[in-house]
Amino acid sequence: MSNEYNNYAASEIWRMWRECNHNISVVSRETGLSWYQVNQILIKGEPVRNTSSINAIVISDMHIPYHHPDSFAFLEAVKDKYEINRVLNVGDILDKHQTSYHAKEHEALGTNEEFRDSKYYINKLAELFPVMDIAMGNHDALTKRKAKDVGIPRYMLKTDQEAYGLPDTWNFKESFDYPDMQDLHMRHTIGTNTKLNAKQFSSNSVQGHHHSEFCISYFADVNKIRWSMSVACLIDHKHPVFTYNKSALTRPILGLGLILNNEPKLAPMQLDIGGRWNGEL
Is the whole model's pTM more than 0.70, yes or no? Predict the structure, then answer.
């Protein structure tokens, strides 16, 4: 296994050990590792990441399987060019149109076909990025929301990791905080006003959800400068499942975010006249 995977696994062991009040038996039971194996990982010490060399990609709102047809080529090119070693995803990784509250589009995939294609493409994404943090979006949570509407408790549902066969190195949570990235805060949506986000939070922040918002805003107080980044999307905006957005005056922007040595950057996905990625970064 790669050093990235091993460091991630060891970090997770340490996190669980702290959360269960240093009880190795609990960690052993939760991970399936023996008491001895857990103890050996702890003896080696907690992995320390070199914060000066973090090159993070921030992906937002792919809405698989209704993503742009060049999304994967674009992501792979960005990964290679910037030597990405941390992957953040601000959610709506899946669309789940057949589960949504919007009217169903006749041109959309059927329920079985949508699940089949979603499973294929999201696992293709997992091959490209084996380790990823995902801040759950409103579309990602549709299954749980619909189940709650009809009185089905969460413990009777499969998680997305179980349903789609995703690796346990994909971490799904409502939000994330990264002390080694200048206390970066990540969640699916904070608010459309990125400057206000930078002002209200005591740390840097990154969000998605707003397909037409693609910007970085800064705010300075007496202590420090903070920034907030809104990452747009990677959808196929011409697909009928996005008909609900056609009345909006703004159009989706395709691209992703980068945080290179703690400096935020935007990477737009430039399209040619035919709506395909032109291959440029």
Answer: yes
Residue 118 neighbours by CB distance under 10 Å: 24
Cβ burial, residue 175 (10 Å; 0-12/13-18/19+): middle
Kindly state the tokens that stand for 44: 């080696």
| C-alpha pair distances (Å), 72 with each of 138, 168, 181, 195, 199 | 23, 21, 26, 31, 34
pLDDT(137) > 60: yes
- The single-letter DSSP state of residue 2 is -
Question: If we measure between CA atoms, which residue out of 160, 149, 145, 158 comes closest to residue 64?
Answer: 160
DSSP tag of 245? G
Q: How far is CA 152 from CA 11, 147, 272, in A?
A: 34, 5, 46
102-107: Cβ within 8 A, 24+ apart = 102/244, 103/244, 105/240, 105/241, 105/243, 106/240, 107/239, 107/240, 107/241
